[in-house]
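Hi there, hope your week has been kind to you so far. No rush at all, and the record is pasted right below.
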Amino acid sequence: MRTHYCGDVTEKFTNQKVQLCGWVHRRRDHGGVIFIDLRDRYGLVQIVFNPEIGDTFHIAEKIRNEFVLHITGIVKERPGGMQNLNLTTGKIEVVVTEFNIINAAKPLPFSLDEYSDVSEAVRLKYRFLDLRRPEVANALIIRTKIVKVMRNFLDKNNFLDLETPFLTKATPEGARDFLVPSRMHPGKFYALPQSPQLFKQLFMISGFDRYYQIVRCFRDEDLRADRQPEFTQLDIEASFINEKTLQDLMETLMQEIFSAVLSIKLDKFPCITFADAIKYYGCDKPDLRIPLKFIDIDDLVTDCEFKVFSSAANNKNDRVVALKLPDGCNKLSRKELDDYGSLVANYGAKGLAYIKVNNLLAGLDGLQSPILKFLNQNIIENILQRVEAKTGDIIFFGAGNNKIVNESMGALRIKLGNDLNLFTKKWAFAWVTDFPMFEYSNGRWYAMHHPFTAPNIDNPEELEKNPGSCLSRGYDLILNGSEIGGGSIRINNYTMQQTVFKLLGIDEEQAQEKFGFLLEALQYGCPIHGGIAFGVDRIAMLITGSSSIRDVIAFPKTQNAICPLTEAPSEVSQEQLDELSIRVKIVEHK
């Protein structure tokens, strides 16, 4: 039906006859001549309806934006001064000799031929139109390239693409499951998988030593800009492997993705421990594009008169940190300082103390701060020396509960980096390792990663005696402050797995009920194995510069987990409910 794609018609086809199909992107009337930009997935080409050529011109007057056309025409060079060098087709135009309106289009709910700021609700309701916009379509095209590189790389490295079930068993850990009622087994439910975790471990026990799957996963959780109830992950598992081998392999994968998609060569990824990530950045997914770091000063202020500092410095659950902003005196106004104070208050901080170093050589007279009167000269000099202060710097302080200080000062660090464009590079990868095996909250232990992550010790009795001091063999891959992948070496020993379940409050009966098939399999010769899962949506979001993963998902849900296009979720008939032995009771959520 067509001889060429719109984006492929260039000056090398001059004076040749072509047939094109596409959508009317833009229509212009100029002096009795109609110009149309015809669009398909591959680009735009200008087509021309001339009144001297048959009756095509009079029919073309009916054409409006987003009509679907099939045209036949002759490729001609554009007149001098009329070329558009921003387009690959910008040196030519196609003079139409014949055409057919395949389909007309209703008036559009929003403009597609130029950018318009349309609400997300409207865009998602008419997502089939939104996907025609070049910036939206391009994001999905890039996503496709990313997935293609993933598949090619893993196929080349002997990984097998193996499928796992979508209808499986509910799990007691992690986010809420989406449940699917069983008609054949009234009162019983399947669960949609949050991850293929247990099945990929069973593949390792089965002898398929290298597995991958680009798989849909489901979590019934509260949503954010980078969360969806259904999402896609690249799931990987390998046998007879250690952390370094797997991390090196995954680095190579990321390097190939960035080379193929963005023509960027990535350096070796740095590795940072969880403890150091918290110490220097206040979080376990630091944005290493920003050069600012926390500097502990607890030991310098234990005896100072400023109780906010001294009380925190003398409490093992608190900390006091400094964050130096080089040349901050010339970058920030008093209003901006007040705004940053409001920012940290949102995280529970009682205020934002700071010292402006107007002139380091002038001693105390060269400093400006409301807290100077509470600090003696020796403490001030030690702080300035510790942070390596220079004239023009501003030193911010956070003091109090560890969590509040980490979150508030971490948010301040990110805000300063964004507001002042402090980024030293465009892309910053990092491995975060040596996570605690467990975290303690509300009177019980929780798995830091998941309950199948191996500890860094082989003795179950030792783990049971000292769960709080044990580290895991888990690792996360961070890009620009976002976690794009997480994994671990898995538990491959029956007794160790039972011990971990016990520490997590899962007794033997519960363990058998929920994970009996895994515990059984662990007793039939389980190899050392480990893996990782990457968020495909999140990787695509970062690479395309999108603000939300909804921008790189073809048909996403809103932040309320609603699909405006199909109006899902929706009510079902009483007949369907009866067939599933389900009675609906509406409960108001607080």
